[in-house]
Amino acid sequence: MSQSRKQRTWRAEKVIERLGQKLSRQVVGSLAACVHCGMCTESCHYVLSHPDDPTMAPAWKADRLRKLFKR
Q1: Its pTM surpasses 0.70
Q2: Containing domain of residue 26, as a range?
Q3: CA–CA separation, 18 vs 22, rounded Å?
Q4: Deepest of 12, 17, 39, 44, by most Cβ within 10 A of its Cβ?
């Protein structure tokens, strides 16, 4: 494995480790309860500042976080 690949793997493991330390019951509950209804999207300041970017939607961000959490 090349050095840069080892570094990326190490960094990814550190991010996942820190994520596990930072997640509270409230965050985990919110991740589990999100049904991607989109009701939070219309009040999100990220979406309002980037209306054409679907990656700014809270449901999209929660899905990315959920995928990391499941690891």
Answers
A1: no
A2: 3-70
A3: 6
A4: 44
The Cα–Cα gap between 4 and 18 comes to 21
Domain count, the chain: 1
Check the CA dihedral 1-11-28-24 and report its sign: positive
Q: What gap in Å lies between CA 71 and CA 50, rounded to an integer?
A: 30
Q: Each residue of 12-64: pLDDT tens digit?
A: 788 778 877 877 888 788 888 888 888 888 899 999 999 999 999 998 988 88
Other C-beta atoms lying within 10 Å of the C-beta of residue 47:
20
